[in-house]
Amino acid sequence: MPFVQVQAIEGVFTEEQKREVIARITDVMVSIEGESLRGVTWVNFIEIDSGCWGIGGQPLTTEAVKAMQNGG
Amino acid sequence: MPFVQVQAIEGVFTEEQKREVIARITDVMVSIEGESLRGVTWVNFIEIDSGCWGIGGQPLTTEAVKAMQNGG
Amino acid sequence: MPFVQVQAIEGVFTEEQKREVIARITDVMVSIEGESLRGVTWVNFIEIDSGCWGIGGQPLTTEAVKAMQNGG
Amino acid sequence: MPFVQVQAIEGVFTEEQKREVIARITDVMVSIEGESLRGVTWVNFIEIDSGCWGIGGQPLTTEAVKAMQNGG
Amino acid sequence: MPFVQVQAIEGVFTEEQKREVIARITDVMVSIEGESLRGVTWVNFIEIDSGCWGIGGQPLTTEAVKAMQNGG
Amino acid sequence: MPFVQVQAIEGVFTEEQKREVIARITDVMVSIEGESLRGVTWVNFIEIDSGCWGIGGQPLTTEAVKAMQNGG
């Protein structure tokens, strides 16, 4: 406690970035709740299939997200 | 907001059907909450491994669901 | 199977609207997966506290959502 | 109702063990809620990628969990 | 790891029963994964508002579940 | 996308701290995925009833967590 779950479309975050997300979200939580809760602060990361995430009903693909990242 | 998550056993819905689920659930939400919230109405779709979903303790497989669909 | 979970900020949907969401999302699923799966098609609705949902880091309140609904 | 979701790192539980988890968690629920709810007691099992689960910010791998299991 | 989440309609389980569910699900997991993982075996329990859980599109209330429990 | 959900025992985080968690987790995600995805980076925060979260089968209460925070 706490438990944090991250959901993102597959392939948008590299393995290294996922580790960074886990480490830095943990640091955010611990900086607020206190270092003594670090051992019971969990973060996990789930990938959703490309095209299986709709925004406004439009399916979002890995490529579409990457285009957004590149200012597309 | 809102965020809708669909969970189903793998292989029961085709890719096209998953897109249809996402689009039509979004339309249901928007028809109730208002078109102005379409852009912040998210739906995603997660597949669970065949046999990793129990009803009454009995593991349900993709084949078993298809048999149910065909009136089995 | 399937299981659908709806998350929305508290107070945006009336009790009646929540029932409508549950009924109509079920109808969407059943129209695609087949009537024979109606009995194993579940939808539940969870409300999140006002201000406990961030978009782009900005906390969204019930009032803010209602303003959006009214074209604010 | 009830719906129980189990999340574990991939490869820690064998297919047989996952079935056993589903069956025995269902039995626990039914022994408390009553046999009449067995048919509406669902349990599913989701696997998280190795390294995509942090405890205290440290990413946990399948191998690390197995080492823990073996007293490592 | 593992993390188990139980969802049930409000008021169906007493506080004592919820504790029993948490303890006994933990025991099931530990008996399969090994006692060494007990400290990292988490179970939490979430209650869903009465009427906010649909089975086949029909909203299930606390009273309806209790009637089912009593063979109604 | 991405969607981040934080679960914590009720009363451990103040309203202000919950806002801070939402803002700072968003900043972590955006610093990795890119500022262009800020508008589609969501974080929400769910509170679990005191005593409804077990670690190793032991129910954790709000008071117990506060004691841990104070080095108890």
TrEMBL record, chains A, B, C, D, E, F:
| Pfam families in UniProt | Tautomerase (PF01361)
Write down the InterPro entries for this protein, in alphabetical order. Answer: 4-OT-like_dom (IPR004370), Tautomerase/MIF_sf (IPR014347)
Per its UniProt record, what SUPFAM superfamilies does this chain match?
Tautomerase/MIF (SSF55331)
Supply the alphabetized keyword list. Isomerase
Q: Which GO terms describe its molecular function?
A: isomerase activity
Q: Where is the 4-oxalocrotonate tautomerase-like domain?
A: 2-61
Indicate yes or no for the key word Transmembrane. Answer: no
Q: Which Gene3D superfamilies match?
A: Macrophage Migration Inhibitory Factor (3.30.429.10)
- Which superkingdom is the protein from? Bacteria
Coiled-coil residue spans: none
As for family, the record states: Belongs to the 4-oxalocrotonate tautomerase family.
Annotated protein name in UniProt: 4-oxalocrotonate tautomerase
